[in-house]
Amino acid sequence: MDYIIQYSNSTDQAIAEIMADRLNCPTINCLRPYAFYSQYKTVIAVGEAKNKSGYTNVEIKGKDRKETLDKAIEYCEKLGK
Predict the structure, then answer these.
(1) How many domains does the chain have?
(2) For 47-79, what is each residue's pLDDT tens digit?
């Protein structure tokens, strides 16, 4: 699998879900234990993503929720999604 997106609060979850729709991938609250991150090529943390995985290789974070959303959309557009 290519992507999984992590979040840790409801604001970041909304942004993660928008990205997931564009990337056709799952999301997960990173405060919950999950042992299968290694099956993903790209593990994306959105916003503060407290307790993010050691497998996280992309972080999308802005100074506020609008900037985080803008960066998330920009990331998807760079991938052609």
Answers:
(1) 1
(2) 987 778 889 999 999 999 999 999 999 999 999
